[in-house]
């Protein structure tokens, strides 16, 4: 990504995949691949330097829009993020705001901070990270268990005993699933949830995460 600087200010952002007209001069697309940085800078085009120091994992945080800054002394254009906002780790009950009421989006007679309800009268809830992560773990466990469900069906249909290895495996999946759900539930905030899912290299060379993994038949 590039920026065009005119009279000390950024006037346009460029992708670098097409030519550009500056003043009365038409420059071809080749300037982005064949010209040197100094040559581009001489006509006011600077490659944008990405500063991701404050950018965080979008799975857990909401990042700000980037701010683009031209530094005349350094001859650079930098794109930086502001402070990110952690996504809600717990469920949030939705309520009507005064702005929504003023815009006639709320039912008649609604007051600010009244609960938002669906057509059945149930409180509308925005799921937090805990709920989303627990649902994902449950779905993963169900998928793993489904691989051996046929043993259970065969036993019901033909009274064929389920091998102990399969019984133990299915029990281990359920036990580990419950442990993982508890760990997520007990996470005090969004950074704590993120930590559960963060893989790190151990002294023995293995790469693991605090949350652990659901067992599989080949594990």
Average of pLDDT: 95
* Termini gap: 45 Å
Biggest beta-sheet profile: 5 strands, mixed
The total count of strands amounts to 13
| Strand and helix order | EEEEHEEEEEEHEHHHHEE
Share of helical residues = 25-40%
List low-pLDDT spans.
Answer: none
Radius of gyration: 28 Å
Q: Helix tally? A: 6
In terms of DSSP E residues, the strand content is 15-25%
Any idea what the shape is? extended
How does the helix and strand content classify structurally?
Answer: alpha+beta
Q: How many structural domains are formed by the residues?
A: 3
Trace the largest sheet across and list its strands: 2-1-5-8-7
Detailed description of the structure:
A 5-stranded mixed beta sheet has the order 2-1-5-8-7. The chain is extended. The mean pLDDT is 95. It has 3 domains: 2-85, no CATH class; 92-126, no CATH class; 127-208. Helices cover 32% and strands 21% of the residues. The chain contains 6 helices and 13 strands. Helix 3 runs antiparallel to helix 5 (164-186). By secondary structure, it is of the alpha+beta class.
Show the helix and strand layout.
Layout: E1 2-6, E2 9-14, E3 20-22, E4 25-27, H1 37-42, E5 45-51, E6 61-62, E7 67-71, E8 76-80, E9 85-86, E10 92-93, H2 98-102, E11 125-126, H3 129-146, H4 149-158, H5 164-186, H6 190-197, E12 200-201, E13 207-208
Parallel strand pairs: 5-8
Antiparallel strand pairs: 1-2, 1-5, 3-4, 6-9, 7-8, 10-11, 12-13
Helix pairs in contact: 3-5
